[in-house]
Amino acid sequence: MKPIILITRKLPDAAIKDLKNQYHIDMWEEEDVPIPREILLEKSKNVDALLTMITEKIDEELIANAKQLKVIANCAVGYDNVDVETATKYGVAVCNTPDVLTDTTADLTFALLMVTARRMIEAEKYIQNGQWKSWSPFLLAGKDIHHKTLGIVGMGKIGSKVAKRAKGFDMNILYHNRTRKIEVEEEIGAKYCSFEELLRTADFVVCLAPLTPETEGMFQKEQFNMMKKDAIFINVGRGPIVNEQDLYEAVKNGVIGGAGLDVFEKEPIDETHPLLTLPNVVALPHIGSSSVETRMRMIQLSCSNIDQILKEKIPHTLVNKQIML
C-alpha cells in the first residue's frame, strides 16, 4: 500500500506531480478555506506525511494520535504553528521552507515601507473618492526614505536582504539581533546596537524577528514611546510580537507616525479591526512570500522534503535535526 500524504490546502497539480506519481494524496479541496480542525485530526490518524500551512495548529493532540506520521512539511519559513518538541519526542521530522522565499519577502518588506512612508494607499483612495480637485504643495506629503535611518529587528536572511535594498536608497542601517552578523556589517555597513538605541534612533523600525518566547510581545507601549514621533513601524515578522492595542494607541495618538503590517496577532482579521480605521496604517493579508514563482518553489521544496523522509533519506531543510542522530 502506498504511503498517504495529507495536504491541508488545495495546491496546483504541477507543484505536487512528483508526489502524485509515487504516493496516495489526500488533499483538502476547498479553495482558500483552511481545513477544519476536526477533519484535520481525523484524517491525520492514518497518514504518513503532512504538508501543512501556517494556518494549521500541529500540536500534541494531533501528533500523538497520528501513529503512522513520519514527517510534517510546513510550507513556510516559520514553524511556530508546529509543536516541534512533541514531534521530536514521537520521532516525526519537521521541515520548513527557508531561503527560497528570502528575496521575495525582502521585496515585500521594502515595498510596504515605501508605500506607508509615501502615503500611497491614502493617495489612491483620495482619487477614488473624488477628492482630488487641485494640486497643492503639501498634498499628501509623505516621509523621505533616502538618507534616513533604518532599524532592523531580526537580522536573519530576510533582514540582510532588506538591508541590502536599503543601501540602494543611501540609508543608514542599524540592527538588533540575538547575535551579531559580522558579515552583514562588513558587506553593507550595518551597525549593531541595543534594542533601545535602535528604537530611539531609527526613522523606520522594521520587525523581521521570528516568534519565540523571547520575542512574543516584544513591541508594547513602552517600546513605541521610545520611538521618534514621525517614525514608521513595519512588521513582516509575526503578529504576536506586537501588542496591537498598544500599536493602535501609538499611531492614533501621534506617538509614532504610522505603521505597515503584513502580519497580525490573530489571522485573518476583518474590516472591523481597529488598526484599519487609521489612515496612516497600511495592512496586508500576510503576503510576504506571495509571488507565483516563490510559492511554487516553497511547495516543491515541501514535497521534496516529504519524499526524502519517506525514502529514509535526509531532507533538505530539517528543523529538528536531532531525530536523525
From TrEMBL:
GO cellular component: cytosol
Enzyme Commission identifier(s): 1.1.1.26
Alphabetized UniProt keyword annotations: Oxidoreductase
Pfam family, one: 2-Hacid_dh
Statement: the UniProt record of this protein carries the keyword Oxidoreductase: yes
EC category: oxidoreductase
Organism domain of life: Bacteria
D-isomer specific 2-hydroxyacid dehydrogenase NAD-binding domain boundaries: 110-288
Gene3D superfamilies cross-referenced by the UniProt entry: NAD(P)-binding Rossmann-like Domain (3.40.50.720)
Residue stretches making up the D-isomer specific 2-hydroxyacid dehydrogenase catalytic domain: 5-320
GO molecular function: glyoxylate reductase (NADH) activity; glyoxylate reductase (NADPH) activity; hydroxypyruvate reductase [NAD(P)H] activity; NAD binding
CDD domains: GDH
Alphabetical list of PROSITE patterns matching this protein: D_2_HYDROXYACID_DH_1, D_2_HYDROXYACID_DH_3
PANTHER family assigned to the protein according to its UniProt record, in alphabetical order: 2-HYDROXYACID DEHYDROGENASE-RELATED, GLYOXYLATE_HYDROXYPYRUVATE REDUCTASE B
Family note: Belongs to the D-isomer specific 2-hydroxyacid dehydrogenase family.
Protein name: Glyoxylate reductase
